[in-house]
Structure prediction request, 384 residues.
Amino acid sequence: MEREKDVIVVEDGKGKKKMMMMTTESGANQVMDGSDIMELVGNKEVFTTFVDHKFQDLDRDRDGHLSLKELQPAVADIGAALGLPATGSSPDSDYIYSQILSEFTHGKHHQKVSKSEFKAVLSDILLGMATGLKRDPIVILRMDGEDLIEFVNNPAFETEMILMLSDIIDGSLQDYVVNALKKLTVAQGMPPVHDSWVIDNIIEPVLESCKIGNQKEFSQETFMEEFKKVVERIGQILKEQPVIVAHSETTFDGSEIKRLLSNKFELDKTLEESMKRVPKDKHLKVSTEYIGLALDIAAPTAGLPPLGAVDEMDKVIKEVLKMLSVDDGKMVKEDEMKKILTQVLGSVMLQLQVNPICVSTSSVVHEPVVSASNLLKPVSPDNN
Ligand SMILES: [Ca+2]
Prediction:
């Protein structure tokens, strides 16, 4: 049944997207019973009841707020509704999960979500699923081979491929073909080649059926012929058995840090929160070796990913800490630590302004379980 579905767009609340060429107008409303979701969100009373029940279920300790931990089931349900594999299955889908979570906590210092915030974000996400809003989406693509076949038959195909391959130096014909496949993007209709499901079920069978050899000597012409054959075959396979891919692009360009640094009130709150949560000694001094932790606590407000989520970002932060040599383990007062943290944020901002980091993730979605999702099961008002 999911096979009829074309594209879903979900807001994730961060960064700039360039994915719109892939959303189709037709079909976007078909997705995930969009009309039902619209009806649910559109009906004030029903939706309020839905949120009340949902919130009550999630708020385990009954403190009227949802902690990160309490939000997890909702995030998992949204992921399930999108057809993502369970958390921990792949770094790519986990990244999308973290984006869904940060949609809820975005701009929050204490990372606790009130009912009205929960309602607003949930409504956004649900409407995003239903209508295909075009801001910051996670796009769920149905790759049916059409784009790929179109790409391979485009007159510019060979020139584009030759340009793309200029950095591949040596290897066998098969290596060349695989490397060339890796250069194809979801925009060109190619499912993510790094995904093990794609390797096992598409790439390897196709290489075998096209009899791509391991010879080291071959002409560019031979390569192009064989490569074209492989891509066409992949296109055919996708036609018979379309693959659903969740795709997301986010750019970290320092603009969120800039916004934070220019808002004294928000900055103070962020620094305060960060200091509250770093370990202190009995004289209430903080070791500067916790600067990374302090930064990580401030990350959501600064529009940064959590440490460990994006390699390139970790590298930038590591460089900045090294450059400023601030993590030497000196015991300092909170105020001093706040100054250091502000300085680190400023330096990360400058780095990102010069070299923005664009994160693009794709993950094959195996079993869209929309109907099984608890999240989207409308709660009827007279239900408990
Ligand atoms: Ca709670």
